[in-house]
Amino acid sequence: MSMDIEDYHQNMKQIKLICEDLPFPILIVDSGEHCIFINHHFTNVIKYSLDDIPILQTWNSIALLEQNSDIKAFKHSQKYKPPHNKLKILKIRCKDQRIRNFIIQNVEIFKEFTIFFFIDPALLLEIEMKTSLTEAYLHKMIEEFPLPIVLTDKEDVVEYINPAFSKMFGYTQEDIKSNDDWGRLAYPDPAYFEKIRNQREYLDLNNARIRERLVNCKDGSKKYIINQDIFIDNKRELTISLDITKLRRIEEAKKQQDILFEQMIENAQDIIVLLTLEGIIISINPACNNILQYSQKEMIGKNSNDFVSEKHRNFTDQQALAKIQGKKKKTRYSVDMIRKDGSICNMEVSSNIIYKDNQPHRIQAILRDVTELRKISAESHRNERVESISLLAGGIAHDFNNILSAILGNINLLQIESDEQEKIEIINDLENATLQARNLTQQLLSFSKGGTPIKNVSSLEDLVVKSAHFVLRGTNIQSEINLCENLPQISFDEGQIYQVLNNILINAIQAMENGGMITLSTERVTIDKNNYFPIPEGEYALIKIKDMGIGISPEEQKRIFDPYFTTKATGSGLGLTSCYSIIKNHNGYLTFESELNRGTTFFIYLPIVLV
Fold first, then answer.
1. Domain final residue pick, 138, 170, 187
2. How far apart, in Å, are the Cα atoms of 37 and each of 48, 56, 223?
3. What angle do CA 63, 64, 65 make, to 5 degrees?
4. Among 30, 80, 72, 65, residue whose Cα is nearest residue 50
5. Which tens digit of pLDDT belongs to each residue from 203-212?
6. Residue 569 belongs to what domain range?
C-alpha cells in the first residue's frame, strides 16, 4: 500500500518516537531496503551508526556470521516471509568485533517499511514465549501506535483495541467484543456487512490484501478507511486502519468539479478547442456547429488553419510559435475564419500553452464570435465621427457669430469715430476679423473631409499674441504674456488652434465681469510615464491661459466638455466641446484646473513634431 506522502512522514515520525523508547535495539528499513532509522539502544549495544549501514546488503555483509543457520532473517518482508512460530537466535558481529546473540523479529508496516527487533534472549527468560512477538513488545507497540489497531484471536474475539482506534471511531473495547460486534456497529447495512464477511473468508494468511471500507462511527459520522492485516502467528491478527475520508471527499469533489467543467464546456457559447503543438484539433465543443456550421466530427483531426482565412494563416502560425518558444505565455488576437457556407466571421482568440513535464504539450484556445460586435463598433465609430463633425461645425458657427459681432461693432465705431488714426486701427481690426471668417470657411472645408486638421509649420507664440490682441481689444481685461525662448516652430492647423485660443479667452473674459488679469504663457515640456496623461510620451508645447474669474464648481467641472452643456443664458454649449475635439485631432490634450472664486487655468498640450 502506498500512503499519502504527508501521512507517511507523520506516521514515520511517531513510530520512530515509539521505537526510541523501547528497551532493545531496533532497525527500520524502507521498501527499497534502505536503512532509515536505528534507535539509541542499537548504537549503544551493536555500536553501528546509520552511516555504517546505508542498506540491508551492507548490514548483512558486516554483521551476519557464516555459521548462522538462517542468514535470510534480514530481508524486507515483501521479499521474504519467515515461518511462523519460530524464533531465530542469530550471532551478530558488533562494530567492536564482539559476537552477541539476538532473537530477530521483523514486522511489516503498510508495506512501506519493515521494523527489525533485536531481542536479547536473557531478557525473555521470565516471559513465556508463545508467539513470534513478546507480549511486552506487542502491547507497547499497539498502545502507542499512531494509527487505529485491533488485535483479534483466531476465533475473531477482540483481545485489545488501542487508544487511536477509540479516538477515530468512538468505540471502546466494551462496545466491541468480537468481529461480529464490530461489523454490526460499523456496517449497519446488512447487505454491505454480508459482502465484507464473504471477503474475509478468502483472506490469505500469508498475503493479506488491503481493503477499503466505509465505516459508521459511534457519533453517526462516516469514514472511509483502508485496513491492512498483519498475521503475527496462526492464532492472532493485527488490523491497522488508515483514514482516507479526506482523500475520498477530495476525489468526489474533483469528480463533481470535472462534471461541472465538462457541462460548462459543452454548453459554452464560445468555441473551446484543444490543439496539438502542430495545430491539429484534438477536441472541440459543440459551439463550433452554431458559429462555424461544422460538426465536432468534421473538425476533429483537421488542422485549425484549415478554417482560418488565408490572409491570417501565417499570423496564427506566428502566434503559436511564439507561445511554444516561450516568447509569449498568453496571446489575444482577432482573426477571420471561414464558415461552412463560405461566409467570413471575425473571431477573438485567447490561447495559452498547456505544459507536461515542464515542456509545451498542448495549445488550449477560446474563440469568441465578435462579428456582430465589430459591426456595431464600426457603426458606433461612424456615428461618433458624424457627431464630432457636427460639434466642430457648431463650434465654428459659434465663432462666426463672435466674428460677425466684432465686425458689426467695429462698423458702428467707424460710424461715430472722427479720429483718422483710430479709424485706421478699426479698419485693421475689421480686416483681421474678415480674415478669420475666411479661415473658418477653410475649417468648414476640412470638417467636410472628416475634421482632419490642415497642418502647416508655424509659430505658436505669434498665434497666442495675435489671439490675445484680437479678443481682449476694447475690454476691461489686462493681459500678461510670457513666451518660451526655446519653443520651436511646430506643425498645426493655424485656423483651428486660433479658434481654440479665442474660445478659451472669450470664456475668461465672461468669467471676469469686473475686469482683471489674464496670463498667457508657453512652455516646452516632456511627458513621461509618470504624468499619467492620455497622450504618448514625448516633447510637447504647452499653452497656459489663466484667468482671475469666478471659477468652475466641482459639479460643472465634470461636464465642462460635454456637448451643449453651458452655464450661460445665451450660450450654445459647443465652444469647449469644439476646442477639446480640435486638440484631440492634433494628438494633443486639453485640460484645466479651477477653484471657485479663485479663477481657472486651461492647459493646451500640442506635440512638437519637427519638420
1. 138
2. 12, 12, 32
3. 120
4. 30
5. 444 444 567 8
6. 378-607
Whether residue 571 is predicted with pLDDT greater than 70 in this model: the reply is no
Q: Are 426 and 417 a contacting pair, CB within 8 Å? A: yes
**How are strands ordered across the β-sheet holding 35-38?**
35-38, 26-30, 113-119, 99-109, 88-93
Q: What is the mean pLDDT of the chain?
A: 78
464 and 555 both lie in a single domain: yes
> Do 222 and 216 touch, CB atoms closer than 8 A?
yes
Question: What is the mean predicted confidence (pLDDT) over 582-606?
Answer: 90
Inter-residue contact 331 to 319 (CB < 8 Å): yes
Final residue in a domain of this structure, among 309, 339, 369: 369
Q: CA triplet 404, 405, 410: central angle to 5 degrees?
A: 95
- Pure H helices in 22-77: 40-46, 56-63
pTM of the entire predicted model:
0.37
- CATH number for position 276: 3.30.450.20
195: left (phi over 0), alpha (psi -120 to 50) or beta: alpha
Query: What is the C-alpha separation between 534 and 549, in angstroms, rounded?
Result: 28
- Which ranges of 204-347 does DSSP label H, i.e. alpha helix? 245-267, 287-292, 296-299, 310-324
Closest by CA position to 584, among listed 556, 559, 600, 604 = 604
Can you tell me whether residue 505 is helix, strand or coil? helix
Which residues 6+ apart lie within 8 Å of 374 measured at CB? 346
Neighbours of 265 (CB within 10 A): 16
Q: How many helices (H) and strands (E) does the chain have?
A: 17, 22
pLDDT in tens, 2-31: 445 555 666 677 678 777 877 789 999 888
- pLDDT of 411 reads 73
Query: What one-letter code names the amino acid at 557?
Result: Q
* Residue of 407, 410, 399, 388 whose CA lies nearest to 442: 399
Specify the pairing of strand 477-482 against strand 516-527: parallel
For 326, the grid coordinates are 516561450
DSSP-derived secondary structure for 73-122 = GSS-TTT--PPTT--EEEEEE-TTS-EEEEEEEEEEETTTEEEEEEE-GG
Q: Give the DSSP H/E element, type plus range, for residue 500.
A: helix 494-511
What are the residues facing 272 on neighbouring strands? 366
Instruction: Tell me the β-bridge partners of 241.
Output: 227
pLDDT score recorded for residue 378? 59
**C-alpha span between 79 and 454 (Å, rounded):** 93
Instruction: Give the pLDDT confidence score for residue 70 in this predicted structure.
Output: 46
Please enumerate in sequence order all residues whose Cβ is within 8 A of that of 271, keeping only pairs 6 or more positions apart, or say none: 284, 285, 287, 288, 291, 292, 347, 366, 367, 368, 369
| Domain count across the chain | 4
For residue 553, how many C-alpha atoms fall within 13 Å in the half-sphere facing its CB? 4
Whole-number CA gyration radius for the chain: 46
CA distance 83 to 450: 100
**DSSP-derived secondary structure for 366-388:** EEEE-HHHHHHHHHHHHHHHHHH
Report residue 546 as a C-alpha cell: 489663466
Question: 544 with 520: CB under 8 angstroms?
Answer: yes
Q: In CATH, what number is assigned to the domain containing residue 483?
A: 3.30.565.10
Distance CA 465, CA 475 (A): 16
Residues 519 and 411 in one domain: yes
Amino acid at 252: E
